[in-house]
Amino acid sequence: MSRFLLQGGLVHDKTKRLGDLTPARLNRKGIDMRRIPFYAALLLLTGATGLVGADRFTVEKTADGAIVKLDGKLFTRYQKLFQNKPILHPVIGPTGKEMTRPLGEGDHVHHSSFWFTHGNVNGTDFWHKGGRIEHRDFLVASGGKTATLKTISSWKDDGGKVLGEESRVMVFDANDKARWIDVDIVFTAKVPVTFGKTKEGSFGVRMWPKSTVKEGGTIINREGKKNGDAWGKPSAWVDYYGDVKGETLGVAILNHPGSLRHPTTWHVRTY
After folding, report:
1. Is the peptide bond before 263 cis (omega within 30 degrees of 0)?
2. Which of 197, 264, 208, 250 is nearest to 12 (CA)?
3. Which of 55, 139, 154, 260 has a C-alpha 20 to 30 A away from that of 186?
4. What tens digit of pLDDT does each residue of 9-32 get?
């Protein structure tokens, strides 16, 4: 599992902000396995305290995916297929602002808000739209005290051949100071599969443009390495934070100890 944390407010030592990043595994060798688990989480914070206890989440399935709401307001949309993969967009932080870059803007247009791919699977590049991850079905789409989406998708190579099946569970939760998404992905191979060496793969988040280091933002990992020094380093989490429409907000990805090759290395850029 991984946790994706959406957060706001000022940085202080005890919270160690967790923010905008595009992590990837920098493998020395390819991975050849039948079932590969990936766990992560996304976290978003504000400065207040308290817990969410009531049934505040709703999930509505739509023709192109699903809408997740918290207290009647948009948290995120799951899109079954954008370019070549399922994504979450927009992702709304705890102060009501979009945390990820608008789709199709700027460089690297394949960086689509919040996604999961890999740059080399049996030679097919899913990161740059060579392969295709096709949503097949919702197994769970439910609200309540949390929201849960469980999906099944097929990974197809650039010739249309099915390489494997992805089972994904995303649990959306919040309290008065944070929002987060726990993500559990299991890839089951249908043919012999190698996840090859690449710096571009796994969970990706493209943050709001003005929150980057280039625009005055900050990258920090668990070990305290900052900005460019955090690139390619193993760490249990990385936080990227900066200005989002006048507020200091950030996104962190936390790598679960049960994930393959924990702690992962990070492809986290300053732009």
Report:
1. yes
2. 250
3. 55
4. 433 222 333 333 333 333 334 444
